[in-house]
Specification:
single chain; 118 residues; Four Helix Bundle (Hemerythrin (Met), subunit A); 6 helices; 66% helix; globular
């Protein structure tokens, strides 16, 4: 699915409020959404993960927000997920956040591998 937007800034902010945080700045989220326009679902998620996991736009719950945002987007694109995919995504989130990964290509590869095994 290459729609312009799969998820909105307001939806991401709502996810964060639901899972435990407050907003510092939404500029990085807005930028990530703009950069992802016309790109694949995995690339869109990669831009958002970099914004959320490295940019820390929320006071708390950045990792939880990244996970739920990705799952929401994958579901909207009819990409199957399950327990193993969720575990793989959590592992990728920890790696990106722990190593402060900023390379979008690397983040996209981690996401694609977590979901497809490729």
């Amino acid at each position: 699915m290459n729609s312009e937007y799969i998820i909105s800034k307001d939806q991401i902010k709502w996810i964060n409020r639901k899972y435990g945080g407050g907003l510092r700045s939404d500029a990085e989220i807005e930028s990530a959404l703009h950069l992802g326009k016309g790109k694949s679902a995995f690339r869109k998620i990669a831009y958002l993960w970099r914004a959320i996991l490295v940019g820390h736009p929320f006071t708390d719950g950045n990792k939880r927000t990244a996970l739920i945002t990705a799952l929401t987007m994958l579901k909207a694109c009819k990409i199957k997920t399950g327990k193993k995919v969720n575990e793989n995504l959590v592992s990728g989130i920890r790696k990106i956040a722990g190593e402060n990964v900023t390379n979008v290509n690397r983040i996209e590869r981690l996401i694609r591998y977590a979901v497809t095994g490729d």
